[in-house]
Design a protein that fits this description.
218 residues, alpha/beta, 4-stranded antiparallel β-sheet
């Protein structure tokens, strides 16, 4: 599913902010990307999503070398093969829950499939809120819609950035259980970038990134 070789990344020709000699994740697998603040967890997710390109090395997702694609091709590939759930949900406020999913289909260049979008919302327990706007949803419902949007195009990979940050224990458990059940139901690999140690009991496999200074010295 993911294969990384000799990855190095730095902004605008500056020093490396992330180095990762080798990493692989099999299909339908789960992993936590952990490490101290500033170690590059979010940067790594952005690289795997093709939102950033490495300074050197390769990132292959579902058999595709992301650096070999144009910007437009990466956008299309991401829309069809990679789902992303950010800490801030970024639902479009002028669109209903259902419309947020339909737009995700359209942007990916896929046929707009209303029935599939409703089915995805139903699988996450928000089918009764399809016509509600984001401000009319609870925070939990917004998160479920965001996850549904990330999964509506049937990606092979779901990336989640700090999904449990600032949540109490009960809400944290609910969110991680939701992510795990949704990805298992739809046969999706899950990568979570987090500093939340509570998730380790749910996802034992971890990729630990060192502090940035240690990466520079490596």
């Amino acid at each position: 599913m993911i294969r990384i070789e000799q990855l190095r990344f730095g902004y605008s020709g500056g020093p490396d902010v992330l180095r990762l000699p080798q990493f692989a994740l099999e299909a339908e697998s789960n992993i936590l990307v952990v490490g101290p603040s500033g170690c590059g967890k979010t940067t790594l997710l952005h690289l795997i999503a093709g939102l950033l390109l490495p300074s050197s090395g390769s990132i292959i997702v579902d058999g595709q070398d992301l650096s070999a694609l144009s910007s437009h091709e990466r956008d299309r590939f991401r829309g069809r093969h990679i789902g992303i759930v950010l800490q801030q949900f970024h639902l479009l406020p002028t669109l209903t829950a259902l419309q947020n999913l339909l737009v995700a289909q359209s942007i990916a260049g896929l046929p707009v499939d209303r029935a599939a979008a409703i089915a995805m919302l139903s699988s996450l327990g928000v089918d009764e809120r399809v016509d509600a706007y984001p401000h009319q949803l609870s925070v939990g419902q917004q998160q479920r819609v965001a996850i549904a949007r990330a999964l509506v195009n049937r990606p092979k990979l779901l990336l989640a950035d700090e999904p449990t940050s600032n949540l109490d224990d009960e809400a944290c458990a609910s969110v991680i259980d939701l992510l795990l059940s949704a990805t298992q139901q739809h046969a999706v690999s899950l990568v979570i970038a987090t500093h939340d140690t509570r998730l380790k009991s749910k996802i034992p496999r971890q990729l630990a990134l060192p502090r940035r200074a240690e990466q520079q010295a490596a």
